[in-house]
Queue: 2 jobs
Job 1
Amino acid sequence: MNCPLETRDNAQLLLDYCTRKLEPESVAILERHIALCGACREFAAGQRAVWEALDAWEAAPVSADFDRRLYGRIEAQVGWWDLLRRPFLPVVRWRGVPAMAMACLLLMAGVALQRSAVAPPPSPSDMAQVDSVQPEQVERTLDAMEMLNEFSRHVRTDSPDSKL
Ligand SMILES: [Zn+2]
């Protein structure tokens, strides 16, 4: 026969032989070829090893209360603090840093971020100016602006040549 690994027609024959689905007369023909062909011998041995391993494999038995425990854990309420600190647990365990120190570190980082995001605080002179503005000053400034407006209106009406 032609080598099953070289001709596609006989490839299924070799696979069926490995899974023991082949009729006895075909088995006899194939075994005669395998005795002569090193490639087919290697292929068949590999296939047999895989099938024997699959036959030998057995799933570990499931404990009787597996379902009950699984659903119990799924339904168990998880506190917000647990949810919050869960991402940091590996770090805390790895470094041995107490949770409180970790919380302080996070707080400091948050404050630093907030400070960097806000504009720098006003200088003392600016603050003094803001503090020293009194209602009388505002009134005087408004009066002065009104006076200037009045003045400019008079200037425009008095001199019709200036169109600015
Ligand atoms: Zn062969």
Job 2
Amino acid sequence: MRHPPRARRTTRHLSWTTAIAVVLAFAPAAPLSGESPVEGANQATAPVHIELTGSRPADDAAVEGPVERVLLTFSGPVQADLSQVMVVGPDDWTVPASRAAHPDAEASHQLVVRFQAPLPDGDYQVQWRTTAPDGHVVSGDLAFQVTDAPPGAERPAEMDALEEPEEEAAVLGMVPPGTGQRWLHLLATVLLLGIVAFRYGTLGPLGSDGVFETVRERAGAGLQKLGWVGLVLLVITLGTRLHHQLGELAGGDGLAWEFLGHLLFQTAWGAGWWTHLVVVVLVGVGLILLGRPGAGGRAWSTLIGAAVLLPLIPTLQGHAMGSELQVVTAPAMYLHVAAVGTWLGGLLMLILVGLPAVRKLGGGSGALPPLARMVNAFSRVALPAVVVLVASGGVTSFIQGGGLSGLLGSTWGRTLLLKLAVVAVAFFLGFYNWRKVRPSLPGNPDAGTLRIPATVEAMLGIVVLLITAALVATPLP
Ligand code: HEM
């Protein structure tokens, strides 16, 4: 196999895929960055999860009429088009009111609903649900009483009877909703990034003597099969993630189809969903081309395009986009996910595809047996990836966690600490494999020596992905 022509093709295709990635990354920032924080709101330097910081009427207040509107103030910007505010009056009647809106263009951290007529005397409950710029849905309620309403403030005849609220879907134990499908999506991401990283990072530099031509051929078929597995997971999660997000917006009461257009076209989450769709198409086309004789170059260029876009999806659909320091957290999260795919995905490919491909091979033309050369090549890619992984994860934890108190005193922080504990064990095993097992391979070229510790390392990595999926579905401190 001749390297320079392939390298040139790759560079050309990388440039257009990178261009798409950059456009997709910055397109959603425009509408979101318009939601500037407002003076007086409880805006800490470190980003905080959106919460209600005040209301008019205030919670538990007895207000002398007339009351013609409810104003809610949040700790940060909220998306009015993805918000619902319902006011329930005496005898469980819903009060006819306008849609939730920002009181003016500058007040992106406030929502107001206006009533058709001043409220009559009685007890009222406000049930609100809104969406932060990072796509997280938050909800709550408050109550107030109206006394001395002005003459003529009566319950309008067209008030609707309030339907019995459906039981909230029970959350299994401590696991936040949406964790399972995010995990499946992360698994697909890691598989597909791993395929490209292993093909170009590990197999690519191994030279083109007869032995490694055979390894590449054997590995190619395995990589293609795993690619189909990744594609199926991507297709499933494309549907389930949209379904889940619409369900969240509806507050467990069916699906909020009325928000579909806004969600898909005006939020960072929606940009992530479109990126997901584009990746599905690219991976599908790439895998089909891979099965056609003579189309290998185009197939791999298409798969590289998908790999460039893949880390954008969790970046656009996670906490990184809700941060005030988005300019740091978004690129850090992109690098974090790309590094996860290179290390964990590459390791999975080494175990599932690389080790079987070198089994029963002869000594090859190099000084080292093929297994040792392949593991050395993998280590040269995995080590820098782990450095990037730790640095980008550290930066993100520091910014999003808001310091040590945020880490220890919140569910998000404790989930992150659990993740770090498992990461520490996985990295310890990785270190053992690198320092002890790898140097022993030239004298003992039996793939079994490496398979067990490497498989445990990869399994721990998959557990870390599961904890991470729960972490991202948990509100920031
Ligand atoms: C020193 C080690 C690490 C630190 C400090 C760290 C920290 C973080 C933080 C703070 C986030 C953002 C979570 C959020 O937005 O709520 C994150 C996301 C992520 N981490 Fe790590 N991490 C580390 C290692 C790892 C490892 C070893 C893996 C893989 C096995 C991993 C996989 C991921 C993934 C896939 C995401 C993106 C999840 C998503 O947005 O869907 N991290 N990490």
